[in-house]
Amino acid sequence: RTASAGSGDTPLPMIAAWHEQEASEGEASHRWFVAVFHLRRLVELFPLNPDFAARLARASNALDQTKGVNP
After folding, report:
1. b/e map of 49-58 (b: 16 or more CB within 10 Å)?
2. Total Cβ atoms within 10 A of residue 13
3. Cβ neighbour number for residue 42 with a 10 Å cutoff
4. Do residues 26 and 38 touch, judged by C-beta distance below 8 A?
5. What is this structure's pTM?
6. Could you give the CA distance from residue 71 to residue 37 in angstroms, rounded to a whole number?
7. How far is residue 31 from each of residues 3, 7, 8, 12, measured CA to CA in Å?
């Protein structure tokens, strides 16, 4: 199975692995916008995965809490 990520022929497992890596790095470095972006893509790809949904909820909450902190 493939999914579009520019070239249109990138295998889904490679796309998912990239989003997972980027999401994890975003979470670890508290770059919540980055984490939310990539976790949203993972939830789109795997809507029944409760781990991705929970991580997205945590990252979204953290992002909401940081709004307005850095003018």
Report:
1. eeebeebbee
2. 11
3. 21
4. yes
5. 0.82
6. 21
7. 26, 27, 28, 25
Name the residue among 42, 27, 36 with its Cα closest to residue 57: 36
For residue range 20-65, what is the model confidence (pLDDT) as tens digits?
A: 999 999 999 999 999 999 999 999 999 999 999 999 999 999 999 9
> Which is nearest to 19 in space by CA: 68, 47, 52?
52
Residue 40's contacts (CB-CB under 8 Å, 6 or more residues apart) are 56
Which candidate, 29, 40, 23, 32, places its Cα nearest to that of 59?
32
Query: Which tokens is 70 given?
Result: 């850095």
